[in-house]
Structures are given as C-alpha cells and as structure tokens.
Write a structure and sequence with these properties.
By secondary structure, this protein is an alpha+beta fold. It contains four helices and four strands; from the N terminus they run H-E-H-E-H-E-E-H. The protein has one domain: 3-Layer(aba) Sandwich (Glutaredoxin).
C-alpha cells in the first residue's frame, strides 16, 4: 500500500474531501495487526478492481486523529466518499472481509452508515 504522507492533519481532511472513495487506515505502523491489514489492503490495491484511494494516517505522528476521526482502537479503517464517512471497521480484519466490504460499498453502492 502506498503511504500518502500529510504534513498536517488539515491536508488529510482536504484530501478526503477532494477525492471520490478514500479508504484511510488509521494506526500505529509497528503493530502486527496493522501490518496484516496493510498487507491485505496492498493486495486489494494491486488487483486494481476498486476505484478507491488507499492511504495511511499515523496516530503516532498525529495523536489528534484519535479525537478528530473518533478513533477508539487501532487499526481502524474508514471509507469516505466525497468527504462523508460511509463505512468504518475497528480492529483487525481479514482480506476477504475487507474485499467484500469494498465490493458492497464501492461497486454495489450500499449505504452502511447513516
């Protein structure tokens, strides 16, 4: 998964608002569960079947993300569409769950939050 770095939390917010579907993986880069989720996301990204921007946001570099994005545990994945949260998953998730969730949200346009 390509790591997109942000100089400020505001840059992350702007990126999310200006993009279509964006999946953000919030976490601590050294956690084994984070690494496993990141590997699953990399495989899905390499399949290139979903029009989704994938990025990583470090809660170590920016502890304010905990409050700003309501992060309770890490890793946490959040999908935004044009700046609005449409899906959230807390903790470790396997490849199949992530891929099927993306298919339901991005391809089938299911509304899972709200």
């Amino acid at each position: 998964m390509k790591r997109i770095s942000f100089s400020t939390p505001n840059e992350l917010s702007n990126f999310v608002e200006d993009s279509g579907h964006t999946l953000i993986l919030f976490g601590r880069g050294w956690e084994s569960t984070f690494i496993e989720v990141q590997n699953s996301l990399s495989m899905i990204k390499n399949e290139d079947i979903f029009p989704v921007n994938f990025c990583f946001a470090s809660v170590i570099e920016y502890p304010t993300f905990f409050d700003e994005y309501k992060i309770k545990i890490t890793p946490t994945m959040v999908i935004y569409k044009s700046g609005k949260e449409i899906w959230r998953s807390l903790g470790y998730q396997k490849y199949d769950f992530i891929k099927s969730s993306l298919e339901r949200i991005v391809v089938n346009n299911e509304k899972l939050i709200g």
